Fold these 2 entries.
Entry 1:
Amino acid sequence: MVELSISGTKILSTVLFLYLLVCLVNFPAAEARVRHYRWKVKYEYKSPDCYKKLVITINGGTPGPTIVADEGDTIIVELENNLLTENLAIHWHGIRQIGTPWFDGTEGVTQCPILPGETFKYQFVVDRPGTYLYHAHYGMQREAGLYGLIRVSPRQPEPFSYDHDRSIILNDWYHKSTYEQAAGLSSIPFVWVNEPESLLIQGKGNFNCSMVSEPGVCNTSNPDCSRYVQTVVPGQTYRLRIASLTALSALSFQIEGHNMTVVEADGHYVEPFVVQNLFIYSGETYSVLVKADQDPSRNYWITTNVVSRPNTTPAGLAVFNYYPNHPRRSPPTSPPPAPAWDDVDSRMNQSIAIKARQGHIITPPTTSDRVIVFLNTQNKINGYVRWSVNNVSFNLPHTPYLIALKENITDAFDQTPPPDGYDFLNYDIYSVQNNTNATSSNEIYRLQFNITVDIILQNANTMNKNNSETHPWHLHGHDFWVLGYGKGKFDMYKDPAKYNLVNPIMKNTVAVHPFGWTALRFRTDNPGVWAFHCHIESHFYMGMGVVFEEGIERIGDLPSSIMGCGHTKTSNPH
Ligand code: C2O
Ligand code: CU
């Protein structure tokens, strides 16, 4: 009896020990959850910067709801298009859609548009922690207000600590409708969108209503435009996730009197560095740590300013409110001055400073299998002003590439391969060129599966004298290593030797600076059809983009929900 009870205890404790062991081993893979969202998208009158206009809302708001999830969770968004007369598609910016290339949300590339009255179900896994975005990817619809943030928490401890996790989306804002803008951009004579009227911080801006004479249109006491307030407790540390979805502007973000330590960029940990101004380009996300360590008896300004273009748009303003001061109390100082808009060096230096964090480095392959150089220029094609890449301006087809390729519909787009480079020996990037051989096309780059590709973004002069712009390039379906930045023309023979192969950051959006170049590397390991384009809404609309296909033969059956437009296998509507 005694003997038996001892061995009974022994068995029990062994079982318990094994059970605990299993729990510990399994911990990092703790249960992934399904996060289900139902969104109604429609037009509503709103006054984000006090000026009333039609904006696109999700469940009544702009920005839309933040998607909050843990690494490995499945996100389901049932999207109801209540726009009445307008199509819709939403892209999940920074989510690679591994195994679900059909839910990337890029109209014309991965799906047909969602028609008015339809409900479309997106379903995908957020496989990595980090700060990501979502936004409309149909025409220029994003800048009508359809955007929001995705926050994915890690299952492992993070390499830095903080007391609170907050997020702020930055934007610029126009009073004209996206239709008016799109029509102007595709007219002869060309009508440029000009500079935005306001800058928004977390969807709120402040237009000077005294410039509007029409009664009832602009009202500074409208709660839609009440200044955004970030309340902090003295002595505590805040992780601020800063994201930009501007239509045009590059921004400088600052918090008066406070330093910011950059710790994350596009979902990857950054070797920490301190800034007073964070330069941020459309499509980028950063996490910064800020300590509320200044005089707690007052409030401070949070500001955004336009950089890289002459900044005629007034600063975006919000309040960094030290508890328990009143949140509406204006800081006693005037907002900190904007950095010089044309100081390219400071911005280039900040880009270069962003490196992968020690202990979290994913080393890039040391060589590449294919190098593609993308010359960024403006051209006139048949009298229309366009942006182009290697003198080809991109047009979206009416049959999404994913469907056309998968179903072998060869008449859906031009099958000629676009150029892998430009005449780099003779082309002068510093002068206005009349690129008489410029064309527009919907041809795409077919990449071999599982190879390493280098992309060199080469900036150049626009059609105006002594002018080159900043372009934030965004790649769908991938993160890339940022191997280097340079000034002037990329030298194929000398510059690759300067690549950072030790601790390059991985990102999904990166700037090419005026008259400069940026070098990227990625692996073609995600079967799908992926857009790569300038994230400036009007630039992409004017043709500044390309499309990559990789591993199409590995993609399973497409869901029928993405189909129903353009050419089909059996009939040709044109
Ligand atoms: Cu955030 Cu194709 O864009
Ligand atoms: Cu651009």
Entry 2:
Amino acid sequence: MKAAVISDVHSNLEALNVVIKDIKKRRIKKILCLGDLVGYGADPNKCVELCLQESDKTVAGNHDWAALGRTDPGTFNPVAAEAIEWTKKQLRSDNMKRLKALQLTESVGDVFLVHASPQTPEIWHYLFRLEDFKKHFKFFQQQVCFIGHSHIPGAAFQDANGYTDFIRDNPFPLIDGRRYIVNAGSVGQPRDLDPRACYTIYDGNAKSIEFIRLDYNVPRAQQKVLDAGLPEALAERLLVGR
Ligand code: ZN
């Protein structure tokens, strides 16, 4: 299987369009989506429609659940919570229904999909440090688990002896006997100080993973956020990627 893995679109249609165009240009037929289709950005309806129309499998993220009232936005920072309240008012009922149908985890071939963490998908734990990654390998069976949530692309592997380390190469090979947790990065709100849209290519045949970065029209996405009356900070952060 070869697939593009997208995550954390966050209602950023400008970034999503550029990513989907790039995936099609590379003739990659399968798209897997790790959730957080909405929240923060100005195009929730169009992003839900486009994501679900283009992707073969999509799991739910914490912002999707918050928009459905399943996760308390009281756990969000004030700016994120304000964006969720705005998003709730914008989302049409057909798109609410589409979000409601999403599962927290999915298995596709030798790949496991979850928005936040394999151990407790509905608690939305962040995986940042190596010790965080290390704990989660026993909670999925496949060779590769894709996650999103932190908006920081990266990967860690674990070998048969339990030795775990981060991978710093891009692209990098999938080695037999090793298992991987890969953060696919964020399409619509990168937080690794690189404002370009991010997605990941999984090639199960060539046994490789590659992170892709793409320029998109940031000023246009920013203007839409401001025109929608969303917090200014949400427009500003798109330019710096944090
Ligand atoms: Zn997110």
